[in-house]
Write a structure and sequence with these properties.
single chain; mainly alpha; Ubiquitin-like (UB roll); 3-stranded antiparallel sheet; 3 strands; elongated
């Protein structure tokens, strides 16, 4: 994400300045215009290389966590539902917030509201904390007089989304740990232990078999050029991240990920679950369909899904039904588009989207469990084969050495 500094005029005529994060300047302008700002000036802010490094290390920078936002939304919903004015409610919550970064943001929001700014506009000035989805839902609640209900739905949605992410992360931790430990042990055997055995065999005059010679060449290469290998890996990762920041790069990588064996179907199910959950929450909260689709597209996390949803939005603007362009995109499974079509015909689109989201969340659970149970034995077998090959290469010269002793 790039950081853009802007100068805009609000609908009330006030001149405002600030920063917004986006992949490119066009997306930053669209985001500001979506908040009804007139963009006067905008430009990318170049960060120092040292600052980029610090920003990339999460534990050196205090961030607003998802649980902070969930707790804030639920507590503010309760206060507003009890008849507490918004400014007073924010004052009460400020005393309870422990995260300094989040406390600073809420204090700024309270000051903006006290000065006459709408709640939606005040939250929209902090896009790194309050997403476009969050701001749009608050806007619908503010206009409809049901802000407490909307905040409750937001907290429930955030908890559900966090649970989905948590399931995927937790499922990947164990296989990643096994791979990391096994890889470390393998490197230790090749770089440290194996050369010691080879020296013993060479001093005894034993002839090294071909597998041992190949492993010795790998060991010598790693010992001589390990620094360059590490630098090359780091450069590859950095270059890949920079390429992903481009529009063509993100589209290519996201399309490739959806086609990737094993992980591709899981990512598609996660994307569908997130799309239907977010879209259903927005529709149920009273957000207009076109605005909801634009928000869903920007929060999809996958450029292929984003492109399909934005194309569907344009088709709907021209009078088509929601299900038809989604079906034509080829991204969404037939069951999803059929159920959306039924929801359109019956007038229960939000309920149908919620049912689809529940179904695909269950599908994600099953897919994660299946993938985890498959990955673990594959990693164990692979590392067993690698370590077994190393052991064979280490012990094969012993037979030659035994023959020399016998002669």
């Amino acid at each position: 994400m790039a950081l853009f500094g802007y100068k805009v005029r609000s609908p009330q005529g006030n001149i405002l300045t600030g920063t917004v994060e986006a992949r490119e300047q066009r997306m930053a302008v669209d985001r500001l215009r979506g908040q009804r700002f007139i963009v006067l000036e905008i430009g990318e802010i170049k960060k120092r290389a040292s600052r980029d490094i610090l920003d990339s290390i999460n534990f050196l920078k205090k961030k607003v966590k998802q649980k902070d936002l969930v707790l804030f939304s639920r507590q503010l919903s309760t206060l507003i539902g009890a008849g507490v004015p918004i400014v007073q409610g924010l004052t009460i919550l400020l005393e309870q917030i422990e995260n300094p970064a989040f406390k600073k943001v809420i204090a700024s929001v309270r000051e903006d509201i006290e000065s006459g700014t709408s709640i939606t506009e005040a939250l929209g000035r902090h896009p790194t904390v309050f997403s476009e989805l969050y701001v749009n839902m608050v806007k619908s609640g503010e206009l409809g007089g049901i802000l407490d209900i909307i905040l409750e739905r937001l907290s429930a949605y955030q908890e559900s989304a966090a649970a989905l992410r948590g399931k995927i992360k937790s499922a990947m931790i164990y296989p990643a740990a096994i791979a990391l430990v096994a890889g470390g042990v393998t490197m230790f055997l090749i770089v440290v232990i194996f050369p010691t055995f080879v020296k013993i065999f060479e001093q005894a005059g034993a002839r090294l078999p071909l597998p041992t010679q190949i492993l010795l060449a790998v060991s010598n290469f790693l010992r001589r050029y390990i620094i360059f290998v590490i630098i090359g890996l780091i450069a590859f990762v950095v270059g890949l991240r920079q390429y992903y920041k481009t529009e063509a790069g993100s589209m290519y990588i996201d399309r490739l990920l959806l086609r990737f064996p094993l992980f591709g179907p899981l990512l598609r199910k996660v994307a569908v679950a997130k799309f239907t959950k977010t879209f259903g929450t927005l529709v149920k909260s009273g957000v207009p369909i076109l605005q909801a689709l634009e928000t869903v597209a920007k929060t999809s996390g996958n450029r292929v899904i984003e492109k399909a949803v934005l194309q569907a939005k344009e088709s709907i603007r021209e009078g088509e039904r929601i299900s038809d362009p989604l079906k034509a995109s080829g991204v969404f499974p037939p069951m999803v588009t059929q159920m959306i079509s039924v929801g359109e015909e019956t007038g229960n689109l939000d309920a149908m989207l919620s049912k689809i989201a529940e179904f695909y969340e269950q599908e994600v659970d099953a897919a994660v469990s299946g993938l985890t149970s498959l990955i673990e034995p594959v990693i164990v077998v692979f590392m067993g084969v690698v370590i077994g090959a190393i052991a064979v290469a280490m012990y094969m010269p012993m037979f030659e050495l035994g023959g020399l002793v016998g002669r």
